[in-house]
């Protein structure tokens, strides 16, 4: 049996972390069984695989921060309901777990999205280089004061009144369900989750039609609004296929691949698209 390297011997088993809203605590590294839970397809469809892991690796809470001790989500009894935690902060914990286990370099396989190309290549991401901005003061104050997770805006072009929300853990399974049932694209399903209120629009069918026909300038403006309000991390990156040169966006995969030991180094002989 090969001996552990010096680098492997000094990897921390536990770590203190503080999330952007001020929630802080201590986490530990994953076990093999917990890695299996990430690969559980049934649990993933229900949106509980990440919850199961977070419940186990979160050892202790030091501070609830600004929004997890009031009307938005009251965890003052010491029990954290990960379904109610901001989705971006759940991912923040997963990245910290990944870095303390395998470091900040992440490699994963990706197929080209061009219909004329079947190339499969490797994508590289430096998790330490991801740009991010904290939740806005407006959003934090509203969640602290009355807990209402709806932020009202008027679209600049169509003048339609809408309200967006900050995504929580409970929205993860809902997003997958929307894609499966209605065969909508990721951008449309994200919009339907983010924008639960549209004036003079009733029912999911009408909301989906509105999203699919929304003016491009209004859609971009609204996306900028919710990114400015919510915790924003640049998890979507532009890559170029090394074979056909097709350019498209990829998302960091928060699944079993994310914690695989093989994801810490590039596969031999694989062409790599580096994300800057």
The count of strands amounts to: 13
Helix content: 25-40%
* CA radius of gyration: 20 Å
What is the ordering of alpha helices and beta strands?
HEEHHHEHEEEHEEHHEHHEEEHE
Which stretches are poorly predicted, pLDDT < 50 over at least 5 residues?
1-8
Overview of this structure, please?
This protein is of the alpha+beta class. It folds into 3 domains: 103 residues, no CATH class; 76 residues, no CATH class; 96 residues, rbstp2171. 36% of the residues lie in helices and 21% in strands. The protein is built from 11 helices and 13 strands. Strands 1-2-3 form a 3-stranded antiparallel sheet. A 3-stranded mixed sheet has the order 4-5-13, with no helix packed on it. α2 runs antiparallel to α4, α7 packs across α8 and α8 packs across α9. The chain is globular. The N terminus is likely disordered.
Main traits of this protein?
11 helices; 276 residues; rbstp2171; 3 domains; three-stranded antiparallel beta sheet; 13 strands; single chain
How are the SSEs placed, and which strands pair?
Blueprint: H1 6-9, E1 14-18, E2 24-28, H2 32-38, H3 41-46, H4 49-57, E3 58-63, H5 87-102, E4 105-111, E5 120-126, E6 132-133, H6 137-145, E7 151-154, E8 161-164, H7 171-182, H8 186-194, E9 197-198, H9 204-212, H10 216-229, E10 232-233, E11 236-240, E12 247-251, H11 256-259, E13 272-274
């Amino acid at each position: 049996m090969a001996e552990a390297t010096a680098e492997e011997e000094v990897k921390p088993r536990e770590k203190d972390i503080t999330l952007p809203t001020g929630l802080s605590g201590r986490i530990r590294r994953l076990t093999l069984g917990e890695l299996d839970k990430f690969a559980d397809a049934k649990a993933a469809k229900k949106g509980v695989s990440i919850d199961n892991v977070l419940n186990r690796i979160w050892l202790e809470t030091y501070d609830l921060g600004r929004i997890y001790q009031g009307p938005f989500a009251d965890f003052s009894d010491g029990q954290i309901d990960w379904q109610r935690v901001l989705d971006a902060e759940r991912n923040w914990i997963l990245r910290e777990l990944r870095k303390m286990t395998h470091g900040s370099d992440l490699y994963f396989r990706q197929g080209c999205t061009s219909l004329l190309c079947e190339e499969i290549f490797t994508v590289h991401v430096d998790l330490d280089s991801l740009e991010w901005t904290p939740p806005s003061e407006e959003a934090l104050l509203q969640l602290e004061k009355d807990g209402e997770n709806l932020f009202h805006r008027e679209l600049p072009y169509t003048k339609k009144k809408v309200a967006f929300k900050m995504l929580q853990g409970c929205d993860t399974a809902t997003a997958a369900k929307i894609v499966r049932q209605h065969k909508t694209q990721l951008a449309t399903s994200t919009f339907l989750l983010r924008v639960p209120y549209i004036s003079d629009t009733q029912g999911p069918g009408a909301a989906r039609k509105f999203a699919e026909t929304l003016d491009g300038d209004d859609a971009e403006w609204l996306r900028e609004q919710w990114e400015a309000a919510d915790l924003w991390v640049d998890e979507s990156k532009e890559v170029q296929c090394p074979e056909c040169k097709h350019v498209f966006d990829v998302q960091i995969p928060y699944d079993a691949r994310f914690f695989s030991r093989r994801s810490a180094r590039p596969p031999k002989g694989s062409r790599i698209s580096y994300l800057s």
